[in-house]
Amino acid sequence: MHTLVVAATAAEAAHVPSDLPLVVTGLGKTAAAVATARALAAYDDVAGLTVVNIGTAGALRDGLTGLHEPGVVINHDINADIVRSLGYDPEERLVVGESDVVLATGDVFVTDPLVRDRLALAAHLVDMEGYAVAFAARSFGVPVRLVKHVSDEADESAMDWPSRVEASAVVLGRWLEEWLSASS
């Protein structure tokens, strides 16, 4: 088994074990999809490879804290119903695991309580890259795991993300170390 770790920022990946291949994508779905696809295309053979997307997420529901591995990721800022009515499948919902936790991904840094409440109807967490990483990995036939640590409440507290990311990075790095030792 081989692992490719994908994170949006170097701050989120600060505690990734140094022996793991790491791709830092930049923020947002486009940057994440392109960087993930580019990294996967560089492999001669992706057999046995797993992409692990680590990062921070905002909690869309009160009391949600800690580390989560979503089982479903949705693209929240596509108008899926309109696209579907035009005869196309927007593929806005990807199953990536067995957990009941749903991650909403979009190019919006959520700080508005109205946006948070709307997203909370369909998801538990919100980020800006998970869906794109999962979509890219799926297009290469590579399994993906999304591992997210709650850094904020997807409200005005999200503006404190720079001061909170280090605590999340420590937890994410520890999870990777534990997962690797359990896998070997």
Strand % is 15-25%
**What is the overall shape?**
globular
Supply the number of structural domains.
1
Structural class call reads alpha/beta
Report the mean per-residue pLDDT as an integer: 93
CATH class bucket: Alpha Beta
Low-confidence stretches: none
Q: What's the CATH H-level superfamily name?
A: Nucleoside phosphorylase domain
CATH architecture: 3-Layer(aba) Sandwich
Note the total helix count. Answer: 5
CATH topology: Rossmann fold
Helix residue percentage: 25-40%
- Straight-line distance between termini: 9 Å
Q: H/E series, N to C?
A: EEHEEEHEEHEHEH
Radius of gyration: 16 Å
**Most strands sheet:** 9 strands, mixed
Instruction: Tell me the total number of β-strands.
Output: 9
Describe the structure.
With 184 residues, the protein is α/β, with parallel strands linked by helices. It has one domain (2-183): 3-Layer(aba) Sandwich (Rossmann fold). Helix content is 33%, strand content 24%. It is built from 5 helices and 9 strands, in the order ββαβββαββαβαβα. The protein has helices at residues 29-41, 80-85, 113-120, 130-139, 161-183, and strands at 2-7, 22-24, 49-59, 67-68, 72-75, 93-95, 102-105, 125-127, 144-152. Strands 1, 2, 3, 4, 5, 6, 7, 8 and 9 form a 9-stranded mixed sheet that branches. β7, α3 and β8 form a beta-alpha-beta unit. α1 runs parallel beside α4. The longest helix is centred in the last third of the chain and has 23 residues, at 161-183. It starts with a strand and ends with a helix.
